[in-house]
Amino acid sequence: DGLLLSCFRSLGMQVFGVDPARNLATEATARGIPTVAEYWSPALAAEVIERYGRPMTITAQNVLGHVDDVHEFVRAVEIALAPRGIFIVEVPYVIDFIDRNEFDTAYHEHLSYFGLHPMRELLHAHNLDVFDVDHFPDIHGGTIRVFACRAGTRQASDRVTATLARERAFGMTDSGVYVAFGERVRRNMTELAHLLKGLRSQGKRIWAYGASAKGNTLMNFSGMKADTIPAVVDDNPKKWGLFTPGARMRIVGPSELAAAGVDHLLLLAWNFESEIVRRSRAAGYRGSYVRPVPAVAVFD
Known about the structure:
CATH topology of the largest domain: Rossmann fold
Strand content: 15-25%
Oligomer: single chain
Helix content: 25-40%
Order of helices and strands: HEHEHEHEHHEEHHEHEEHEHEE
Shape: globular
């Protein structure tokens, strides 16, 4: 919707956006952020150069993991980027994904899960070097922001060296790490289903919060249905009155919480835990919360 680019524009920079979602591209353009409703590609990169010149900065926040052909995407960056320009790419971090059992982040939109090692190899294949990296452990369950430039134009920071060393120590290329991850996830979901069905058998009323893609992944993987959790609260009014796929939970607004007599709220959007607790308390909810990831926990 042009929000990020509007910040650059407020600093006096010339901006241009690319977003294949036509509604968002239209909204951004209406806000004064020229945005083309297409997929980023080498052909589009050539058009950008012709119309706007070579950009000094190209950003891709939570985009690359959704891309089918990552080499084509990065090749387009290499075509467009100014000689001394920088490419800033932000992705969920695979180390956090594994370490925190964040299996529900794996759903249809997410095609790749990046660490710095594979990101560096991908960029290097297109004559781009990683020169810095930042880690945000609390954004989307753990995120890295990678800074790249044309090969040989900048010196790599100590953070790059430290992050690569951490990934080697973690065992990113060891298949056993991923097998153990799968085993932990299965145990965790078995424990969660056992807990919630036990509470239900005691007459406790259980709802969920967050009718999100990750929430649908968790519900369907665990095998829980609307007979255990009949409703899920979501802040987006466009979802109210609909039902979640598979589990068939009814989607309701936060205003229904106070009068519903709910005893436990399952945090399907666990990455927004503090915000959900604040909003649900403000709506009059007085029950407990169930955190499913990284380990099952009940708290007030």
